[in-house]
Protein: MBL fold metallo-hydrolase
Organism: Massilia solisilvae
Amino acid sequence: MNPIQLFDAESSTFTYILCGPDSREAVIIDPVDHNLERDLAHIERLGLTLAYVLETHAHADHVTSAGKLRELTGAKACVPSGCGIPPAEVQLNDGDVIRFGAGETISVLHTPGHTAGSMSYVWRGNAFTGDTLLIDGCGRTDFQSGSADALYDSVTNKLFTLPEDTRIWPGHDYKGQSVSTIGWEKRHNARLANRTRVEFAEVMAALNLPRPKLIDVAVPANRNLGLSHGA
C-alpha cells in the first residue's frame, strides 16, 4: 500500500493518509488547518474511518488541524511526548507502536534535532521523517530546542540504519520533489551525505535562515492541537 500524499502550497507541508488493504481504519500525519475540508473529503471519498492523527513535532510554519479532526471524527491525537502538547490523548515515546486497522503497525522513532521532541514514523517500508530528514536536505536546527548534533545522530544512527529501499516521505518540500529512499539520501543528501559531525554542524551554523513568519502564532496553537485556548 502506498501512502496518500497531500500538499499545502502555502507552507510547503506534506500531509499523509495511511490505510491498509484489509480495513477501513486510517491514520493522518501532519494535517494543516486550512486543508481540513480537503482532508475530510479524501477520507469520506475513500470510505475510511480516521483512527489517529499523528504529529511529527510542534510545527512553526503552519497550524495543525489535529484538534478539529479529533472533534469531527473521534480520532485520537498522537504526539511526541517531548513537544509539550498536553491535550493529546497519546504521548509517544521512542520505540512505541501504533496499531490500527487489520494488523497495521506504525513504529515510532524519536529523531530529535529539528526540535527536541521530533518523531519519525515507519509503516510498511515507508518512513515519515517530518522535518528531521528532507529530500536532499534536513530541517533547520536553530530554534525550538534544535540541535545540529542531535539531528546528525538521529539521521546517521536511526534513519540511515533503516533498509536502504525504505521510502522517505518528508514533512516539507521546496523543490518539487515528493519521495526518496534511505539509500539515495545516504549517498547524495547535500547536507548529510559523507559529512562528519563537525562538517555538518558547520553547514547548519552557516545557513542564516529567516525566522518563520508564523512561529509566534503556530507554536502556541499547535501545543493545543491547533485549537484556540478554551475551545
Remarks:
- The two ends are 36 Å apart (CA to CA).
- DSSP finds six helices and twelve strands in the chain.
